[in-house]
Structures are given as structure tokens and as C-alpha cells.
Design a protein that fits this description.
Radius of gyration: 23 Å
Order of helices and strands: HEEEEEEEEHEEEEHEEEHEEEEHHH
Distance between the termini: 70 Å
Oligomer: single chain
Strand content: 15-25%
Number of helices: 7
Helix content: 10-25%
CATH superfamily of the largest domain: Ribonuclease Inhibitor
CATH topology of the largest domain: Leucine-rich repeat, LRR (right-handed beta-alpha superhelix)
CATH architecture of the largest domain: Alpha-Beta Horseshoe
Number of domains: 3
Shape: globular
Strand order of the largest sheet: 1-2-3-4-5-6-7-8
């Protein structure tokens, strides 16, 4: 790459000592070796991003980077997780997505402070037992590997909240999953045991095929980790020139799993007032990209919050001026409980029940979006199906807690909301309410609030 490119210039600045004191460093310039000059930042560097290069190893003395908290080495050429990481006990976040990692040594896991480990889209068939030593682990992303089992030691990770195990080779879900007291966001679609459920369900509900040539793309509406979303004109619909939204997936794997599973889950979810719905799946794309066509959302719908950042790890980030009236809180919470109840009745878990996937407007319209993390319930295994639904109850407790923390009301109804939140957050999964119960309780509180408002007028 030529030296005038910005990232090459960053490397030049590093080599000439002009980045002294830096806390963050990103290098994207075809690196085949770890630049030794990075060690000159050992006393200050906290975040290092070496993604998108051609690295296959890290130096054995990486431990000299004693301030390093966050390391990204995604989209490189690693075949092993570097054992040097095991000595870097200050690391709290590690990302090695989209390499060719097939082996992780027991000594390669820096367990002491690790909260967030990303190994999506690699070639792992086994995880080391030492991963169970990660007592601070909150997020573990393993979608798109070759795992046929998970180590039982993971049951020791009592703080684990998000687990992505989609698109692997698992024949079943381990029972110890349901003993994890904080597990809230679980995806497992695209494994052999789940494929059977998915194929049986989708065979009964064909999805409309929409030819790429019938779509006229307009401006880009947004971009997520899994794909690009465009406004488009559907030229051969029953309504001529119907405006729609088109999602084009970026790759065969997303951070949550397979595009196919997202499309099927969106289709099986069907119609419900708090869902966007699905028009069809794209066929004959010139680059064979996968994509789907959805109704166009109202322009005034906005997300409740931003996704988690490095510091919040598993919790969404709300704008500093975010505030919800008690009425608004009850509307959002009851609608989300209603739509998740609907999904569970359709045999689907959402898997990513977060405020950043919820949109609302001033007219009390509430939409739950993004089925990238959805999975298919084993309806013939009632106990497991109920436990999977109750994992989502814990995710709802996190959402409700956030809404309540941004609501200034002080009354009995809010106290009852807190009591419901505590019920959903219970460590014993069997004691958590299912979503029909959650929905009924929230609807009862809405009616109580309406009666109180009517009396006060």
C-alpha cells in the first residue's frame, strides 16, 4: 500500500516517535509482523486495533504492554490464539473474529479480567477448559465455528450474560446453560439440532422470492455489523413502485450466526403490531449476496439507545438526556412483552432483546427489530423450551431496569414495576415468569395508571 494512505501515515508517525503518550492505536496497512515500535507506547496504550492485516502471530513479550485493556486482531491470518495473550492479565476485551483459528492452548486465555471474548467465524472444534476460569466473563461470541461440544467448565462463568454459539456443530444444548444465573442473550440457530427444527418449520411456510431486477435501490438508511439497509422501490409489487427497505448481508456469517436463520426467523415471526415484518427474500443478486425485503419503517421511529460500548460491555448506552414518563415506560414495556410473547408462541426466541433493537415514536408506536440473534424453540421438549423463554425473561429484566432508571416517577406503580423486574432477574431460572405473565402484569399496571390519571383530572 502506498505511503500516502492515512493508516500508512499512522505507522510512519509511530516509527518516528510522534505518537508517544497515545492511549489508542489502529493500524490497517498490510502488516505481516507486529511492529516493534508499538512497545514504545507500553506505558500509555490501552486499546490496540490490528484488524484487517496479514498477521499470524504476536510477540511472546506482549506482556510488556502492561496497560493494554482491549486488543482487536480480527480479519488476519491467525491459526492459533496467541499464547502470549495468556500472560496479559490486564486484557478485558479480545477480538479475533474472521481468522482461521483452529486451536486454543489452555495457557492462551488471560482469565483474570477478561469480560468480552470474540472468536466469531473461525475453525474451532474445541475450547480449552481454562475458559471456565474467566470469572469476569460477560460476553462470549463463538458463532461460525466447528464446535460440537462446549466445555463444562463454562458453567463456572457465573457472570456470563451473552453467549453466541450459532452456526456450529452442536448436537444439543448442554443442561448447565440453564444454571447460569445471568444468561440473557443466547443464540444457537444453525447447529444440527436446531437445523432440523428450522427446516421443519420453514417447509410449512414458503417465503416470497423477489428478483433483484425488480428492486431499485435508493439511499442507504443504515448499516449494522451484519448488513447494509437501503431504501428501495419494488417495481413489480401489486402496488406499483412500492417503497420498501432492503437488507443486503455483508458475509456468509454475521456476529450472531447465519443470514439464512435471520430470514427464516423473520418470516416465521409473522405479523404483529410491534414487528416490522417481511416482504420476501432476494433472488438472483449479481454477486450472489443474501438479502431480504422488508416494509419501510416510519421515518420518525428512533432507537431507544445505542449498543453497548467497551466500558458498558453488555449494557446499552442511553443519551444523557434520556427520560421516560411512567406512561411511556409502561407502553414500551407492555408492547415488548406482548411481541416477545407472540414470538415464543411462534416457536422463536429473539436472542437480542435490547433497547438498541427497539424503536418508538411520539405516537406510542413501538417496533422490535433485528432477528439476527433469533433461534428456534424445541417445541417437542417442553422443559427446555420454557427454560429458553425464561432466559429471555432475564434479558427483559435488564431492559426494564434501564427504563426504570430513566423514569423520574415515584409511586406505587413504579415500585410494582421494580418488583416485576426483580422477578424476571431471579438467579433460579425456574422461578422467572414467562412472557404471558409479564404481559398481563404490565397491562394491569397500565390500567391502574390510567384509572389514577382519570381520577386526577
Amino acid at each position: 500500500m502506498s505511503s500516502h494512505l492515512p493508516q500508512d501515515e499512522t505507522l510512519n508517525l509511530l516509527k518516528t516517535g510522534k505518537l508517544q503518550g497515545s492511549a489508542r492505536l489502529k493500524l490497517l496497512c498490510g502488516l505481516t509482523e507486529f511492529p516493534a515500535e508499538i512497545f514504545t507506547l507500553a506505558d500509555t496504550l490501552e486499546i490496540l486495533d490490528l484488524s484487517g492485516n496479514a498477521l499470524n502471530s504476536l510477540p511472546n513479550d506482549l506482556v510488556k504492554m502492561h496497560k493494554l485493556r482491549i486488543l482487536f486482531c480480527s480479519s488476519n491470518q491467525f491459526t492459533n490464539l496467541p499464547e502470549a495473550l495468556g500472560n496479559c492479565q490486564s486484557l478485558s476485551m479480545i477480538g479475533f473474529k474472521a481468522n482461521q483459528i483452529s486451536h486454543i492452548a489452555e495457557s492462551a486465555i488471560p482469565a483474570q479480567k477478561l469480560r468480552w471474548l470474540i472468536l466469531t467465524d473461525n475453525a474451532l472444534s474445541k475450547l480449552p477448559d481454562s475458559i471456565g476460569d474467566c470469572q469476569q466473563m460477560q460476553k462470549l461470541m463463538l458463532a461460525g465455528n466447528q464446535l460440537s461440544t462446549l466445555p463444562e467448565t463454562l458453567a463456572n462463568c457465573k457472570k456470563l450474560e451473552l453467549l453466541r454459539i450459532s452456526a456450529n456443530q452442536l448436537q444439543s444444548l448442554p443442561e448447565w446453560l440453564f444454571s447460569l444465573p445471568k444468561l440473557s442473550w443466547l443464540t444457537y440457530a444453525g447447529n444440527p439440532f436446531s437445523d432440523e427444527i428450522e427446516h421443519k418449520r420453514t417447509a410449512q411456510q414458503p417465503i416470497t422470492q423477489i428478483d433483484w431486477t425488480d428492486l431499485q435501490l435508493q439511499q442507504k438508511l443504515g448499516e449494522g455489523s451484519s448488513g447494509l439497509i437501503y431504501k428501495a422501490i419494488w417495481k413489480k409489487d401489486v402496488q406499483p413502485n412500492k417503497l420498501v427497505a432492503v437488507k443486503i448481508f455483508k458475509a456468509d456469517y454475521t456476529s450472531d450466526g447465519l443470514p439464512r436463520c435471520e430470514v427464516h426467523a423473520t418470516a416465521l415471526a409473522g405479523q404483529q403490531r410491534n414487528l416490522l415484518g417481511l416482504e420476501g427474500i432476494i433472488s438472483h443478486h449479481p454477486q450472489l449476496a443474501q438479502g431480504m425485503v422488508m416494509p419501510l419503517m416510519d421515518a420518525d421511529l428512533t432507537v431507544l439507545a445505542k449498543p453497548p460500548n467497551f466500558e458498558s460491555c453488555s449494557r446499552d448506552v442511553y443519551a444523557s438526556n434520556t427520560g421516560f414518563s411512567l406512561e411511556s415506560l409502561l407502553t414500551i414495556a407492555s408492547y415488548i412483552a406482548s411481541v416477545v410473547c407472540h414470538l415464543h408462541e411462534q416457536g422463536i426466541t429473539h436472542g437480542d432483546l435490547y433497547a438498541h433493537n427497539i424503536l418508538s415514536n411520539q405516537n406510542d408506536k413501538v417496533i422490535l427489530s433485528d432477528f439476527g440473534g433469533a433461534s428456534f424453540l424445541p417445541m417437542d421438549n417442553i422443559e427446555q423450551s420454557l427454560n429458553l423463554q425464561r432466559i429471555e425473561s432475564h434479558a427483559f429484566s435488564c431492559l426494564l431496569e434501564e427504563l426504570l432508571n430513566h423514569c423520574e416517577a415515584h409511586n406505587e406503580i413504579k415500585e410494582q414495576c421494580w418488583a416485576l423486574q426483580a422477578e424476571c432477574a431471579q438467579a433460579n431460572i425456574a422461578k422467572r415468569p414467562l412472557f404471558k405473565t409479564i404481559e398481563n402484569q404490565l397491562n394491569g399496571l397500565k390500567q391502574m395508571h390510567y384509572r389514577q390519571d382519570t381520577k386526577s383530572v
